[in-house]
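If I may wish for something, please walk me through the protein I am sending here so I can picture the backbone:
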Amino acid sequence: MLILKKIGNGGYRVTMKNGKTSMLTRYGILNDELRRDYSNCEAETIEEGVLLRGTKRDVNFSVDNFKDGGFQIRIPLTKEERLFGLGDANRDSVMIRGKTLNIWIANVASYGPMPVLVSSDGWAIIVNSTYYQKFDIADSDKDRVIISVAGGASDFYILSANSILDLVQAITDVTGKPIMLPAFGYGLTFVETERNINARKVLDDIRMMRDRDIPCDVFGLEPAWMENYYDMSTEKSWNKENFWLPTWLPENTASHRSFLGPMRFMGMQLSLWLCEDYDLFYEEDRQAKETTCESENAQVGDIDDAAFRKNVEFVDANIQGVVNTDQITKEDEPWFEHLKKFVDNGAACFKLDGCAQVVPHPQRLWAKKYFDSEAHNAYPVVLAKQMKNGFSEYTDRRSLIYTAGAHLGTQQYAATWAGDTGGGPRTLVACLNYAMCGHTNTTCDMDIMDVKAIHYAFLSTWTQISSWAYYFHPWFLPPEVEKTIQRYSKLRSSLFPYIYAMAHKASVTGIPVMRPLPMMYENTDRYDDVHNAYMLGDSLYVGAFDMNLKLPEGEWVDYFTGKVYAGDISYETANGYAGALFVKKGSILATMQPQQYILEKEHDYIVRVYSGADAAFELYEDDAFTYDYEKGGYAETRFEWKEESATLAVYRRKGDFEGRPNNGYDLLNSSVPKIDGIRSVRDMQIRIYGKLPKSISLNGSAVEFTDCDGYVEFTLPASLHEKGDLFYQIKY
């Protein structure tokens, strides 16, 4: 018998009476409440399943539950209906009607499949299961979706809204809003080579980054940092020969007397590589028992532990002991516990390698009760959850946790990269398919020998260069490649205020930073086959790899040259760049002067106004480290451009945040000695692109401006801005 539960105006959860609770529900990863109203849809159970009366059409979800476990959902389609989603289950296309795709994490082949299907007809489905699933998306039957789930009983969410953007917001109400990385997480991450590396070479490389004027925020160490190479245990320690720490200092030192101090003084954050085969489900079950299971169908711990003991241990008179096949896990110790000393050392980021987390364990019984058929897809989500929560509970700070494996809910805990698959066009498709599921913090391993790939990677939500076993340091590469990396790293640094504002928007709404064109322009199939372009936030259009581009309606300004384009174009890249970056006319975006690292000093803002239509932008600021922004601890400055009256309004900054003035530590021994609170506003540079004005005035007084060939520039004084709202009048 199916049970229908309304989770808000726009969504329902469908479960089976007496069905076993999904791991994703049991562990608090999914939510049964929509944050706002999306539609006035209605649903009812019918003989064959569930009927959803949606905003655009009625949708019939036929359901069959199988006697031996598993279920199947069948959904009829309209002729013109287009379908999107499923995360990294496919790297061939964004519009996926006509494909059969599997929801099973597989190394290299499918790092992050997500059972989320989004329709252009105003509905979406989230399958609440970690078992293997097959989505036959009008492949065997051109008029029907057939979803087959290999275990468990029916459990899924159906959503209805007027647009794909609204559906993505509703999806992330259920699966969790994307995490906002610490500010430095949106700079460049460089992962060091693991060959012949030691602390002195790391410091020399960081110094080289600074001296060669390549902005960089994070330095990552691969497994050679460990005493025991690829140590998956909780007994890991620093490689004492190559990363020596003074023996007379505590092992959790961040002292200036170690190599960790000079890293901090040069403004570089430390990332450590990890691999995991630890049984995380003991800890998840402990946490679940401390909270209320919201499922009306089953309770936490509904699997009988004793019934499974025969699978992992036995008693025999001739044998004096029991051998557990899991030699790593300490059942009473959470995984993150042993990482605290490395956080004290200064580790602010952790790279979670694919390694064991993305491969099946068919003979393993997790927590002595869960077969791998259920636990396999859940493992990377649970890992990301324990890493994110462990770090935040220990430090009261955000971390950059980046992982190769992903499934439903990962976006609320960690960033991902496209695994060991390089940085070519297919990884871009993976990022766009993740976006359709509401996962925003995505990137790839930058392909540093392809300048086109450098362009795309630096214009992803976050970005990294992974040296791993090689020598991908910019200064070891051909001079033109080093120059390209330097140029794009400065470009990324300058775009930080805009990207950070879009990241905050993603954390609140679920709308990703990198957005597939069909998400933004859904009422046409014109962009269904566009895999070489995407929107970066509200206003920037990125063209990558293939420069035969389809520009959306309106006029678009070349960010590099100021030239205006429209329609389908064959774009010739600007000198020194390797792809396209356009700004929509009728946009405002805040940028800044590039810095060696994001938190090097206070930001010198440059606010760019692209006339041609009404526009607005909110410059977002917070303390860069903590979760205080979730409780209102942030400030915003709103800019508005009115095209008809040619006026620019700059409103007084609103909001506040306190930071951590001393963070409880002293300057020389703490990896994070202080976290700054809000500072006084500073002078800003305002640039207005478009026609050359005859005059600019503020409250009737003339404002001096400079004609800069394509835009005019003037200074917005902090002394006036801190007192109130400012309204500039432009006359042409």
Observations:
- The CA atoms of residues 97 and 137 lie 5 Å apart.
- Confidence is low (pLDDT under 50) at residues 293-322.
- The chain has three domains: 2-175, 183-509, 587-731.
